[in-house]
């Protein structure tokens, strides 16, 4: 057995000590909620009758008179979004699997699932981050009927999985399994898609050309195949022990996907307090699981959104995760994958090269993850170094993960990484704190020093680009984009013009209190700047022409200006009223008023 890396151990112990005051009461609370017999039996007769009134006759009989487990299904199904459309079939599969082992299942509730790809650059995107907390609240409402002994969660994309997990952890006494839908088959190559986007930004491709390319890339049911937040979610759920082994990247509507779904149901029902394998989710998600998630994020060059979401998810379990933990773990975690936007491959190529089983084995053998961390499958994460397959009878079997990567351009071992440190860095300086994803940025772009050009919206930058004002070295400072200002939308509309300018040979970078997520690419970008401009952050003091220095290797974000001048500098203001109405934004005023800072999880719930 490989010894745990000293830094991983130090960070884990630091988190344990920091979290003690919140974690112990959390565990006490969920332990008190555990019922050794179905909790629904305590309901009044009228309450109970309401709970099973619409069930099929057999399920009604089982719920009314039996003591078998009842499973909650919390679903993010809708048929507009490709990632969630496959969940249409899941409730019937889940109920069938539950009945086969003497249990029952009910759709406890639905949660909203919005797509950042649809709302990108539109007003609706300003609800995106807040939708995570809405999903957490909706999950709690779904489970509040107290009819259930365990739960399965159906969700894939950006805010949906973090919201579901936050809600699940508020019912931490219930066992839980996350059931993914899987990625769509590969379509148009990601680098080809990116090329058309840049040509369109330059006016060298038409909207017809762009739509044709996008339609070939996003062409059927399943998750988008690039390694953005949605697929980072799936990696996290597996490396944190909340998926079955190898479940993350099996394509939708295939026999193996259906078999994994039904086996996940069986496992969820085995873990209830009614049996001998009780495994509440609040005990699975501990400090070790959180550290494993951060290491997985670094090793795969995952979505920067999780420097926000992981903090909020951990806090829901009474665990205090901080950006400095991300920074320290990044220094010892090698980058083992190249998946678009950090390379040309997609997640189907990653799966074919060895997938999660090989990745977890490499990290475990290198002592970079807690192999003994508890999971929903077996006793420890070290058991996840396998991959599922269907045997001749159609049953799931398990075989060891490949000994070596099938494609070292996509997935490598820890002894031969793409780079020795992870793809995320934390920046600090007089402008506050920020995050940068370096795994897709050329090394000669890891340090940028140039005059600032300040914008208060994506549209302002696009207008300047079209007017030919940006053909030079500069740092784009796009502010008043944080959670308190306008809900912290993703700013991917900025990437095509900045990419064009970088390709022309200019040294450009982005500094913003907004988000870019897992699809952020080749332009160096200091994002999630906190404190944000709307909270009086120093990013609001920058003026056009101030020299800004972004230094990823040194972890610095500086403004090169006389200290006395900077100290006397006033803070900019802007009118955000138009971003607070329309497209439902007026309903989220309380969220904007309550939300915490990015480095605290940007949540409306109390930080730990």
Automatic annotation (TrEMBL):
Binds 1 [4Fe-4S] cluster. Its cofactor is [4Fe-4S] cluster. SUPFAM superfamilies: IlvD/EDD N-terminal domain-like (SSF143975), LeuD/IlvD-like (SSF52016). One of its GO terms (molecular function) is metal ion binding. Pathway: Carbohydrate metabolism; Entner-Doudoroff pathway. The keyword Nucleotidyltransferase does not apply. Gene3D superfamilies: IlvD/EDD C-terminal domain-like (3.50.30.80). It catalyses: 6-phospho-D-gluconate = 2-dehydro-3-deoxy-6-phospho-D-gluconate + H2O. Residues 410-602 form the Dihydroxy-acid/6-phosphogluconate dehydratase C-terminal domain. It comes from the Bacteria. GO terms for cellular component: cytosol. Its EC number is 4.2.1.12. Keywords: 4Fe-4S, Carbohydrate metabolism, Gluconate utilization, Iron, Iron-sulfur, Lyase, Metal-binding. GO terms for biological process: D-gluconate metabolic process; Entner-Doudoroff pathway through 6-phosphogluconate. [4Fe-4S] cluster binds at residues 157, 224. Residues 69-383 form the Dihydroxy-acid/6-phosphogluconate dehydratase N-terminal domain. Belongs to the IlvD/Edd family. Catalyzes the dehydration of 6-phospho-D-gluconate to 2-dehydro-3-deoxy-6-phospho-D-gluconate. This is Phosphogluconate dehydratase. The gene is edd.
């Amino acid at each position: 057995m490989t010894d745990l890396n000293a830094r991983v151990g130090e960070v884990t112990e630091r988190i344990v000590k920091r979290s003690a005051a919140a974690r112990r009461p959390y565990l006490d609370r969920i332990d008190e909620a555990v019922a050794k017999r179905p909790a629904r039996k305590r309901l009044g007769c009228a309450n109970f009758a309401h709970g099973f009134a619409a069930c099929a006759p057999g399920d009604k009989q089982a719920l009314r008179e039996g003591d078998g487990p009842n499973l909650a299904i919390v679903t993010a199904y809708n048929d507009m979004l490709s990632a969630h459309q496959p969940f249409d079939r899941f409730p019937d599969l889940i109920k069938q699997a539950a009945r086969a082992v003497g249990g029952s299942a009910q759709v406890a509730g639905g949660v909203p699932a919005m797509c950042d790809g649809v709302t990108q650059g539109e007003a609706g995107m300003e609800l995106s981050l807040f939708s995570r907390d809405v999903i957490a609240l909706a999950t709690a409402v779904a489970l509040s009927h107290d009819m259930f002994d365990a739960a399965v969660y159906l969700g894939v994309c950006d805010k949906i999985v973090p919201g579901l997990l936050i809600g699940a952890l508020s019912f931490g006494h219930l066992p839980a399994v996350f059931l993914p839908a899987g990625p769509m088959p590969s379509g148009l190559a990601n680098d080809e898609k990116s090329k058309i986007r840049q040509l369109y930004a330059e006016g060298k491709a038409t909207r017809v050309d762009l739509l044709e390319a996008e339609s070939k890339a996003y062409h059927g049911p399943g998750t988008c195949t690039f390694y953005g937040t949605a697929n980072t979610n799936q990696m996290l759920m597996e490396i944190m022990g909340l998926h079955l082994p190898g479940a993350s990247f099996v394509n939708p509507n295939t026999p193996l996907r259906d078999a994994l779904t039904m086996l996940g149901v069986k496992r969820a029902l085995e873990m209830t307090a009614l049996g001998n394998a009780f495994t509440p989710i609040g005990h699975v998600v501990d400090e070790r699981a959180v550290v494993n998630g951060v290491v997985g994020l670094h090793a795969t060059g995952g979505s920067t959104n999780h420097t926000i979401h992981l903090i909020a998810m951990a806090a829901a379990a009474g665990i205090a995760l901080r950006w400095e933990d991300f920074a320290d773990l990044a220094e010892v975690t090698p980058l083992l994958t190249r998946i678009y936007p950090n390379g040309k491959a997609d997640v189907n190529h990653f799966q074919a090269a060895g997938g999660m089983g090989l990745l977890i084995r490499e990290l475990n053998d290198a002592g970079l993850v807690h192999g003994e961390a508890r999971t929903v499958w077996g006793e420890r994460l070290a058991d996840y170094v396998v991959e599922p397959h269907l045997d001749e009878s159609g049953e799931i079997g398990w075989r060891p993960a490949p000994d070596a990567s099938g494609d070292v351009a996509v997935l490598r071992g820890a002894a031969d990484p793409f780079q020795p440190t992870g793809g995320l860095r934390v920046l600090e300086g007089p402008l506050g704190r920020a995050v940068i994803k370096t795994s897709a940025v050329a090394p000669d772009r890891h340090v940028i020093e140039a005059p600032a050009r300040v914008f208060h919206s994506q549209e302002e930058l696009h207008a300047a680009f079209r007017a030919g004002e940006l053909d030079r070295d500069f740092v784009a400072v796009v502010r008043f984009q944080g959670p308190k200002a306008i809900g912290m939308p993703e700013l991917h509309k900025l990437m095509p013009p900045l990419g064009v300018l970088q390709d022309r040979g200019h040294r450009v970078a982005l500094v913003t209190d907004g988000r870019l997520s897992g699809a952020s690419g080749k332009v160096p970008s200091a994002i999630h700047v906190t404190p944000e401009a709307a909270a009086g952050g120093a990013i609001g003091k920058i003026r056009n022409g101030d020299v800004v220095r972004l230094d990823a290797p040194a972890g610095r974000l500086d403004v090169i200006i006389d200290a006395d001048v900077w100290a006397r500098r006033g803070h900019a203001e802007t009118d955000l009223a138009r971003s607070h109405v329309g497209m439902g934004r007026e309903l989220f005023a309380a969220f904007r008023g309550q939300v915490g800072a990015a480095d605290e999880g940007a949540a409306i719930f109390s930080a730990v």
